[in-house]
Design brief:
About 35% of the residues lie in helices and about 15% in strands. It folds into 3 domains: about 130 residues, Alpha-Beta Plaits; about 55 residues, Orthogonal Bundle (DNA polymerase, domain 1); about 160 residues, DNA polymerase, Y-family, little finger domain (Dna Ligase, domain 1), CATH 3.30.1490.100. Strand 2 and strand 3 form a beta hairpin. The termini are far apart. It is globular.
Length: about 400
C-alpha cells in the first residue's frame, strides 16, 4: 500500500490550535510576518485533479481518499524498482509537473502507510519518502508514534486508551484483539490488525457513493434580514443539488441550519436547525430550493446577527433506489420527472460553460452572504481573467 499526501499551505503554531480564527492571532501574524491566504476552493480542486492525474499515470490502481491524499496499489512494482526508488519517482514527477511537494509513505496496509506518511512529513532526513515494508522498521516507528496519531484514533478514544496505559501505536498493535473488540469496537480491532500488517480495509476502485452533501459558508458580514438569508440559503441549496446531480443521486431528506457568531459571546446568540423528509427523492433544484426556504422561514428569528448558514442533503439514493409514491398526484412538490431531468441537464450544461449563468431567482439577492476573502490568491489555473498579462 502506498499513501501520498500534499498540502498547498501548512502552518503549525505551538501556541495555537489548528483552525483558530485569524482575528484572534493578529498580534502573532504581525510579529512573525505570517502570510495569510483566503480560501480558494476552485484552485484547491484544480490542483488536486492535477496531482491525482499524475498519480493515476504512474500506478494501475489509485484510490482517492480526499482532496489531498490518495492510496496507490503497488502490487508487483518491487520486481521492477525498489519501493523507495518508486516513491521518489512519484514525488519528483508530481513536483515537476504540478509544482507541489508531496510526502510518500509505503507499507503493507493503509494504516501503516499513513504512519509511514506521518514519518515522511515529520522527519526531514527521510526526504519526504518512507518505506515501511520491513516489519522491524514498522515496530521501531510505531514505538515513537503517539497513539493519537494512529489512523482512526481520535482525541476522545486516545484519552481512553491512554488511561489503559496504551500511549503509542506499538502498544495498540500489541494489545489483545479480543479485549479491544469488547471494550471498544471492531473498528479499533481492525486498526490493531492493520498495524500488525494484516489488511482489513477494502480497496475502492471507484469512490463510494456519498451519504450526505453539505454546502455552507460563513458570511462576509453579518446578516439580519430574512430576504438576505433566503438568498444565501437558496444559493447553497442550488450548489448542493448540483453536486447531487453530478453524482447521479437523489435526496430524500434535507436539513437547514443558521447560527450567529460564537466567537462574539457579548452579542445575542441563536442557533437552530430543522429537517424535512421529501415525499419523493429528487435532484430538482426547484423542489429543493422551495423546501429549503420553507424550512428556513420556520426557524428564522429577527433581532440576531447571523454569521453562518448551510444546507445538507441526506438519504441519498441512485436511480435504482427510487420508489414512486402511490398518491404522487396529490403531493405539492410533484414535478414531471422527465421534464425535470431535461431541464436540470440543460441548466448544468450552461453553467459548466459559464459559471452561475442560470440560477434560481431567489438566489439572486445582495452579496452580503458572500465570504469575506480579502486575501484571495490569484486563480491563474481556473479563471481566464486572472491570467497575468504582458503589455
Amino acid at each position: 500500500m502506498f499513501s501520498v499526501t500534499y498540502k498547498v499551505v501548512t502552518c503549525n503554531y505551538r501556541t495555537n490550535k489548528m483552525g483558530v480564527p485569524a482575528h484572534l492571532i493578529k498580534t502573532e501574524i504581525r510579529r512573525h510576518r505570517i502570510q495569510v491566504f483566503s480560501s480558494n476552493y476552485a484552485f484547491y480542486g484544480d490542483m488536486s485533479r492535477r496531482v491525482m492525474t499524475n498519480l493515476e499515470a504512474m500506478a494501475p490502481r489509485v484510490d482517492i481518499y480526499s482532496i489531498d491524499e490518495a492510496f496507490l496499489d503497488l502490487t508487483g512494482i518491487e520486481r521492477v524498482v525498489s519501493f523507495e526508488a518508486f516513491g521518489r519517482q512519484v514525488k519528483d514527477a508530481v513536483y515537476r509537473n504540478v509544482g507541489l511537494p508531496v510526502c510518500v509513505g509505503i507499507a503493507p496496509t493503509r494504516t501503516l502507510a499513513k504512519l509511514a506518511n506521518y514519518a515522511a512529513k515529520k522527519y526531514p532526513a527521510t526526504g519526504g519518502v518512507v518505506d515501511l515494508t520491513d516489519p522491524a522498521r514498522q515496530r521501531r516507528l510505531m514505538a515513537r508514534v503517539p497513539i493519537e496519531e494512529a489512523w482512526g484514533v481520535g482525541r476522545k478514544l486516545s484519552a481512553k486508551l491512554q488511561a489503559m496505559g496504551i500511549t503509542t501505536a506499538l502498544q495498540l498493535a500489541d494489545t489483545d484483539l479480543v479485549t479491544l473488540r469488547k471494550r471498544f469496537s471492531v473498528v479499533l480491532e481492525r486498526t490493531a490488525r492493520e498495524l500488525n500488517g494484516i489488511s482489513c480495509l477494502v480497496w475502492e476502485d471507484a469512490p463510494a457513493p456519498k451519504k450526505q452533501i453539505m454546502c455552507s459558508r460563513s458570511f462576509g458580514q453579518p446578516i439580519r434580514t430574512l430576504p438576505d438569508l433566503e438568498a444565501a440559503v437558496a444559493q447553497y441549496a442550488t450548489r448542493a443539488t448540483e453536486k447531487l446531480r453530478k453524482g447521479q443521486q437523489y435526496a430524500g431528506e434535507l436539513m437547514v441550519f443558521i447560527r450567529t457568531n460564537p466567537f462574539r459571546p457579548g452579542e445575542p446568540q441563536y442557533s437552530r436547525s430543522t429537517s424535512v423528509r421529501l415525499v419523493n427523492p429528487t435532484q430538482d433544484s426547484r423542489v429543493i430550493v422551495q423546501k429549503t426556504l420553507t424550512q428556513l422561514r420556520s426557524i428564522y428569528r429577527s433581532g440576531y446577527d447571523y454569521a453562518k448558514a448551510g444546507v445538507m442533503l441526506s438519504e441519498l439514493v441512485d436511480a435504482t433506489g427510487l420508489q414512486e409514491d402511490l398518491f404522487e398526484s396529490a403531493t405539492t412538490d410533484n414535478v414531471d420527472s422527465g421534464k425535470s431531468e431535461r431541464l436540470m441537464t440543460v441548466m448544468d450544461e450552461i453553467n459548466r460553460r459559464s459559471r452561475a449563468t442560470v440560477f434560481m431567482a431567489r438566489a439572486a439577492g445582495p452579496a452580503a452572504h458572500t465570504m469575506r476573502r480579502g486575501y484571495l490568491s490569484p486563480a491563474y489555473t481556473t479563471d481566464w481573467n486572472a491570467l497575468p498579462g504582458v503589455r
